[in-house]
Design brief:
This protein is mainly alpha-helical and 346 residues long. The chain contains 14 helices and 3 strands. The protein has helices at 2-19, 36-54, 59-77, 131-147, 170-196, 200-210, 216-226, 232-248, 256-259, 268-278, 285-293, 295-302, 307-321, 330-339, and strands at 22-29, 82-93, 98-108. The protein has a 3-stranded mixed beta sheet with strand order 1-3-2. α7 runs antiparallel to α8 (232-248) and α12 (295-302) crosses α13. The N and C termini lie far apart (66 Å).
Length: 346
Amino acid sequence: MMTLLMSLLMTAAPVRAQSTATLRGLDVYRSAVLSVENARSLYGARLNHIVYLRNQHRSASTAKAEALRKEIEREAGKLEGVAYADLSISEYFTSVDHAMYITFDIVDEADRGRLAFSPAPLKTVSDPGGLLASWKEYYDLGSALARRGQMPVDRPDCPGFYCLWGAPTPELGALQKKMIAGVVSKERELKTVMAHEKDAEKRAAAVFLLSYGTRGEKVIEACLSALKDPSAVVRGAGLQILADIINHRKDLRVGADKIVPLLDDPSRSVRAKTLGLLVPMADDPDHREVMLAAVPRLLDILKMREPGSHDLAFTVLGQLSKKSHDRRDYASWEKWAEDNREGLKK
């Protein structure tokens, strides 16, 4: 009986580890107004309650957690000297662990230049040829298949400059074919959606659709324009496409000077995508000078507890420095940065 009980407990343990998260880290990015210690003092009890609520895995509890997240975010945004605040929660799973990290993205009033995006569009723009609806259907269908483990893991054959799912099923293939054909005749209208549509999801869809264009330079131009959008969703779409181009289209060039400024983006998700894009660029001598100038921002991100941001910053710093300092040995990384502050390799 005891052997059977122990066997059941050992089997159940990984399930509990996966389903119940523990809060492993709290970050405040780039603020002289709000420190991690102050954030913990002001909001710690409520942040822990968010973790508790999310661990219930019930829709009502999830809704309460989201309402509490927004409440804290609003309060942080009203702190004296703060121009902008965003509170994000990220979760990481392994077969035996479930960790949660919370990030305050704060833009101080003294640093308001970090918010210098294009004005938010205010119009409702018609869907050109039903392409926006087709992209949503394509995205939703592929996402559902991916959640069920029914999508190939390899990168699909790509008829454009970015491919999310490719055409692994007849339904996805038909939608992709429709989008490719439609973009040829609706490029101008899609750019109008990007510029004037108030719905950020639709603007992002327009960016993804434009990646089916026939001229790589025009696709890059649209993506770089998206990086100035006030929505992190749209900026993220532009970065996703540019990452595909940098990794798979060696005939096209994207300047690091266009990408590096987004290391200081007020959105954690955008910074993470920026870092992922910079990894394949870091070993290119043509980009080295620009990327060395961004080392102070890379060090800021390295010091974060959230693994997605920290690990990518560590990777890029290792590529630039050719050093093997420990990932948490900040003193050694800062010394290397000081030695290279003029952009010269020592």
